[in-house]
Amino acid sequence: MFFTTTSPTADGVILHEGSSPYHPPGKVTSRRPQGTSKPDAAAEEGTVMATSGVEEVAMRLLEAFYDLSGQDPTRPVPVGAPGSSPRESAAATAGIEPGSTECAIAVRYLLNQGYLEKTDAPSNYTITVPGIDRVREMRGLADPAKGGNRMSEKTQRRLLTLLAIAIAMVLTRPVNRFIEEEIPERRGIGDDLTEAALQGLVRAAAFFAASLLVRRLAGPR
Fold first, then answer.
1. Which of 51, 81, 96, 165 is within CB 3.0–4.6 Å of 91 for a Cys-Cys bond?
2. Torsions phi, psi of 99, nearest 5?
3. Coil, strand or helix at 47
4. What are the domain boundaries of the chain?
5. pLDDT one-digit tens code per residue, 150-192
6. Contact 68, 116 (CB under 8 A)
7. What's the CA gap between 175 and 202, in Å, rounded?
8. CA-CA distance, 106 to 98, in Å (whole number)?
9. pTM beyond 0.85, yes or no
10. Rounded-to-integer distance, Cα 116 and Cα 73, Å
11. Phi, psi of 77 (to 5 degrees)
12. Residues 135, 66: contact at Cβ < 8 Å?
């Protein structure tokens, strides 16, 4: 004759066996519930380290695209082929072997993050506005709390010039008609000053309107 008592523990259930031909008194048998094995901490640490390494290489590559593109999101930059010079290869500029597996993984990471975009040329990519902002943030050129602009300063200047010219062309037409109707062919110094003032107002108004549009388009995200 024997008896069995149980008591819960952190690892499972402990069975205290009484007198028995097979279990002498006082013998303790422990059982761990199935499916409660702890995860491999070394494997988790290795995954974190691998991800961190990929990001570090990708950020170096992104900075190379930033420098070679001149902060222009419309300018294609070659990632480079084996043997390419740093001026012709973003990978070589970043100290990465062009065409290597490390380079391919870094490019894929930047594409997935939205920092690069593909172009018609398979080995050429353009840096995106978020990619430019990310580099500026890493280099301390933008305040993350305030948010970066959607366009670089160089792009803003180009867009401002184009918009100012377009707006001036639109505004010049009614001004020219007014000059033809109101200012006679035989005119004096006063008439010349009036035309010059009108033309100057057109250019100033065009520049002001273009500046407002660019600021609205390139404002903080």
1. 96
2. 85, 0
3. helix
4. 1-34, 48-138, 153-217
5. 666 777 788 888 888 888 888 888 877 877 776 666 667 777 7
6. no
7. 8
8. 11
9. no
10. 9
11. -130, 130
12. yes
